[in-house]
Structures are given as C-alpha cells and as structure tokens.
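Please check this today:
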Amino acid sequence: MGRPLEFGRAIGELTRLLLDESEAVALQRLTAQHGLSAAAARDLLRHLEDQVRSTGAAPDDRTIVVERHRDEMGDWRACILSPFGARVHAPWAKAIALSIRDRTGSEPDVLYSDDGIVVRLPDVDAPPPAEWLIPDADEAEGLVVRQLGSGTGARQEQQGAPATALFASRFREAAARALLLPRRRPGKRSPLWQQRKRAADLLSATARFGSFPIVLETYRECLRDVFDLPALTELLRDIQARRIRVVVADTLAPSPYAASLLFNYVANFMYEGDSPLAERRAQALTVDPVRLRELLGEAGLRDLLDPGALVELETQLQGLAADRRCRHTDALHDLLLRAGDLTGEEAAARCEPPESAAAWLEELARAQRALRLRIAGEERWVAVEDAARYRDGVGAELPDGLSPALLTGESEALSELVARYARTHGPFHDAEAA
C-alpha cells in the first residue's frame, strides 16, 4: 500500500474477518481468496487467537495494543503493537524517547520496526503509563524536530534510522547536491571520510543559523521523505478523538506479536559495541520553526493534490487529450508501445478522426507491427514488440509466423506490464491493474 494508514486498514479488515467469523468460514476465505494452504491458514488463526488470549485484542487499524512486562533483568518494557509501518513508528519512537527523557531525566532504549515500537525503561518501579507512550498530536512535530537535531546517546543511535546519524547523513547528501562540498581534485571522487569531515565542518558552521537552506532541506527530507509525520499526526488525532482505541495489557510473558518484535530488539543491542562511531556525534541544532513551517506547510502533501490535475494528467498519458490523439498509423503504433494493449473502441477514442482507428489497426496488422490477442476473454490489440511479454506475463496465445527475435523469453514480463500500467495511469487499486 502507498500509505501506512491504508496498510493498517487492510490488516484490520483481515484481522476482524478472522476473529469475527467462524473458524470454518475463515479457513475457507483464507484458502480460496488469499492463496494459503490449509495448514498455513490454521496456523494464522492460532496465531491471532493466541494474541487475543494474551492481551485481550489484536492490533489493527482501529486498535493499538500497549503491552507492558518486565524483561530478564527486571526492567520494564513496553511494546506498542501497531500495523502502521516504520515510516509512522520512526517519528513516534523519536517523540516517545524525548518525552520520557524530559519527564524522567533518564535515557530510554527505544527501537521501532514495521510491526511496532519497543521501549525499555531502566531503574523504574512501576510500568510506564500509557500517556507517556502516546504523544499529544499538537506536540509530536516539535518533539521529533528536537530529537532529530540533538545528541541522544549511543544506544538511541542504534535504531533503524538513528537521530543524529540520520540527520548528519541527510545533511551531507543535501550539501553535496547543492555543490557545497567541493572536491580538491575535480573529476575524481572524494573518499567518504573526507565528505563526512567536510559535511561535519559545514554543519558546525551553519548549525546556529536556523534558516540556513540546507538545514531546512535536511529537516524537510527527514520529516517527509524518511518519516511520514502527517500520517503520525493523523493517527494521534484519531487516538485522542477515540476513533482508535488503545488497549493496555500487563503480561507475565510477551504475547506472540510482542515476542516477534522483541527478537529484533535483542538482536539490535546484542552487537552494539561493534558498530562504528563515525556518525554518533551530533550537533545541537537550532532550527527556525517559522521558516520550517513555511517549508513544510500546515497541510499534508496528500491534501495538496488536486483530483482534477490527476485526471488531466492521466488523460494526457492515455492519449485521450485532444492534442495527444493519434493522427496516423505510426502514432497509433507508438501509442500501443507506450500505453499497452487496447480494444478497438479504446483505440478509436484515442484517434483523430475516431473512425480511422479500425483501418489503421488493420494496416498495422498487415505490416506485422500489431497483433490481435485474446486476453481474459477479450480481443485486444498489442504492438508486435510486446508479443513475448504478453505471452509470458498473462499467458496470451500468439499466432504463428512471428519472427524468432520477437519470441525471446521475458523473465520480468508481468512486472514490466504492471509498471507500464502504473506509468500511464493516475492512482489505482490493484484490482484495476489486474
């Protein structure tokens, strides 16, 4: 799925299906609609039932589970089980770490993945309250921005996209794109350690200027390209409005979901001392919040997309716009290569005049530049250059007499067909492409 929240909704629908219906119905749907074997379907049902028995709920798009228990050393661990993906969990984890540090003065261990967040609090007697783990939606952006530009200690830096290492590496890339890291010898590559050193010097010199363009661009890239901060803000607002419930469970042993999450946690810290220290140092950055807000904007990027503009773009890509229609045979052949297979009616809608499409297609067929293929029970026109791709991708039966050069096997035929469909359409569902 394109958006983490949409992915969470898909997981939620599947979870509710499995838990709300009878076992026989759920097994039948999993095997018939999702292609699982009977054994795999039963294992999935057992896994969900064990999770619900352990915590009282399974995480989905309407439910977040906060599971708290003591680890092997007697310290409290909190596992936030959520299906919304690492791009949402990453800024959430940063906000939690800074919030707990502000509250207690101690540095928690925080790790995130696609499946949730693990928080370990040493030297505390009581489990962390759920309020510590659910930041306020209005404060989340400020917490993440502060965490990105401040040193957080070695353990915090060990996460998948660590705070200072993330900012330092993205700053180095942005400065290089802006030609602010000149090479001593033009035409030759600079060693990575030299690039890091030059970038660190530049960061040290510009850190006190909150409106320096490269600093702002680095924040924008981290908050929007690496993280999905708008999706996190939307999620936290849904929690505050009780559209998404939070189930808190104290357990003696990790639930099945938490056990999988904790395996990554243990592996992450097991070899902590072997990690290089090159990018563990950070600059305490002062960012101009007004300029940053002007750059990011109050609205999320998804709210800025004009549906009319998407329709207009797809019309042009499909050759349906008045200035993009085919006016001769060669243009129609190019359209088949660019847009893929078409029916006779679809070709007519893309030709000027429309009644010429049939004659042009027949002319392409006589010149062996186009083929009639039956795809999913429908007769469609295909450029002859795509013959092997449709044969290997969708199982179309090819006519006799084609040149052997056109019949070479295509190992990625289906992927290429779907990629071409995506290049010539606006946002679409998988069923439409299928």
Summary: Residues 151-163, 274-286 have pLDDT under 50 and may be disordered.
